[in-house]
Specification:
The protein is α/β, with parallel strands linked by helices and 370 residues long. The protein has 16 helices and 15 strands. It has 2 domains: 125 residues, no CATH class; 235 residues, no CATH class. Strand 8 and strand 9 form a beta hairpin. The N terminus is likely disordered.
């Protein structure tokens, strides 16, 4: 199957063959066997590939061409179903508050994210020491508005967005994609140290079904789950573990707020948004592109906060004689002169990494096929 996916166009005009790796799990193998020359991936995969001496990072996503376009680019977000926003609003708000506070703690001390992510993902601490410093942990959704609008515009021009977001009306797009008010309410409560009691007795607490990816981009979740004593002592809101990485109870000021059920989704953010469309989850931690495409096609969900910006990289196979992006571009052109096509893998077609890679190749005048 892999051989069938790797085989590609070797026409004179094609310098690069883009390969859909359908996730990131096979990237190490495909680089090790020489079936791929390079990949673009989100963390911690680039750090893993370097630590395993399979590949080397030649450029981080914020530095990809066109120059300046991808600096602080939006990446992962927290999406909440409209049903949960309406019917589980208090629980959603308190869970969001915990995630926002977790992001603030990581901003002060990235060691929390390093240790929690290593434990959560089952990787060496050395991997996360490479990975975490390349990720910007944020929460305010307004930070990613312009980047998200730019992405929607590019996708609309390419015909990839053809439903609810097929418009040039900025306010319409923002209202379709985002719910800013819930974040603003949570921010005000944090700033003013406001605590609101649950509007229901403990016996009637709702269950929040939360899906996430195997990525340290979602460290706000793993930090909150790993350090309950920190959040309980400092803020009075915390997760009590019932089953590691699967079941928790959310408490606020000593009162039970919600049961939390976590689902790890390895197939990517598009799968998470499909689960939301099927009403199997209430909250998804995933990339902006899957959220955009799903909401465009009718999935009833809203982006309520950002999780991170940047945090991806292009990694080339270790034996390729290049050490930076410019050298890699020149190497691609040299291979083309020799009649060879360079094969670059990407996680999924509905990923920001895929969009950034195509944009970077086009900026360098490198032709590609898929």
């Amino acid at each position: 199957m892999l051989a069938g996916c790797i085989g590609g166009d070797t026409t004179e005009s094609t310098m690069v063959k883009l390969i859909n790796c359908k996730g990131q799990g096979a990237m190490s193998q495909l680089l090790s066997t020489g079936e791929l020359d390079a990949v673009i991936a989100w963390q911690p995969t680039p750090a893993v590939l370097e630590t395993e001496n399979v590949g080397k990072v030649v450029i981080y996503s914020g530095d990809l061409p066109p120059k300046g376009m991808w600096k602080n680019h939006p990446c992962c977000v927290m999406v909440v179903s409209e049903d949960a926003l309406e019917n589980k609003n208090y629980a959603v708000k308190q869970f969001l508050k915990l995630i926002v506070l977790s992001a603030k703690e990581m901003e002060r001390n990235k060691t929390l994210a390093i240790e929690a992510s290593a434990k959560w993902l089952g990787v060496d601490k050395e991997v996360e020491e490479k990975s975490i410093p390349t990720i910007n942990f944020i929460s305010d959704p307004k930070i990613i508005v312009n980047g998200t609008l730019n992405f929607v515009e590019v996708m609309r021009e390419q015909g990839a967005v053809s439903g609810r977001l097929n418009t040039t009306d900025r306010e319409n797009i923002l209202n379709t994609l985002f719910d800013f008010e819930i974040y603003n309410e949570v921010f005000r409560e944090i700033e003013n140290n406001i605590s609101v009691d649950p509007p229901y007795p403990p016996s009637e607490v709702p269950t929040l079904r939360v899906a996430h990816l195997p990525s340290d981009h979602h460290a706000a979740l793993s930090v909150a789950a790993t350090y309950p004593k920190l959040f309980k002592k400092k803020y009075g809101i915390y997760l009590e573990e019932v089953e590691p990485k699967k079941k928790y109870v959310l408490y606020s000021q000593g009162k039970k707020v919600a049961d939390i059920e976590l689902t790890l989704v390895v197939e990517g953010g598009a799968k998470i948004m499909t689960l939301m469309a099927q009403n199997q989850i209430d909250i998804g931690f995933n990339g902006v592109p899957p959220a955009v495409f799903a909401i465009d096609k009718g999935t009833k969900g809203k982006i309520v906060c950002a999780l991170n910006s940047e945090g991806s990289a292009v990694v080339v196979r270790k034996d390729i004689p290049v050490n930076n992006w410019d050298e890699f571009v020149n190497w691609i052109k040299e291979q083309h002169k020799e009649g060879k096509v360079v094969k670059i893998g990407y996680p999924l077609p509905v990923s920001i990494q895929y969009v950034m890679l195509k944009s970077a190749l086009e900026a360098e005048g490198i032709t590609y096929s898929e």
